[in-house]
Amino acid sequence: MKKSEISWKNGVVTAWDIDELNLDKSIESQIDLLKEDLMQVRFGNTIILDLGWYPEFDPRGQFVLCVVREREWEKPIFQLKFRELSQFMPNLNRAIKSADGYVSY
Question: How many CA atoms lie within 13 A of 102 on its CB side?
Fold first, then answer.
């Protein structure tokens, strides 16, 4: 998956480690790619969209996709947990919309 394939609205990608993730393959066949720090996108000065796999490299893990205010990781504005790669893009688009909606431009 390439970051250029996604409409980030006003977000700026600051960390990206999922170029090799293939949404058409199984989780189990890609488990060595699934770690805690997969992606981070900044919206404005204070909103962060973050994606990770918890626990990392564990086939029983799950994606955790959240939107937080900077330094308020314990109180996410938006959070989704999911395992199915078919849910990846719909959930990411929901998170982008949420993150972008919290920023005043």
Answer: 21
Alpha-carbon span 92 to 104, nearest angstrom: 21
Contacts of 51 (CB under 8 A, 6+ apart): 18, 38, 39, 40, 63, 64, 65, 92
Quote the pTM value.
0.92
For residues 76 and 68, is the Cβ–Cβ distance under 8 A?
yes
pLDDT tens-digit series, residues 51-88: 999 999 999 999 999 999 998 999 999 999 999 999 99
Q: What is the DSSP string of 58-104?
A: -TT-EEEEEEEETT-TTS-SEEEEE--GGGHHHHHHHHHHHHHHT--
Beta partners for 43?
A: 47
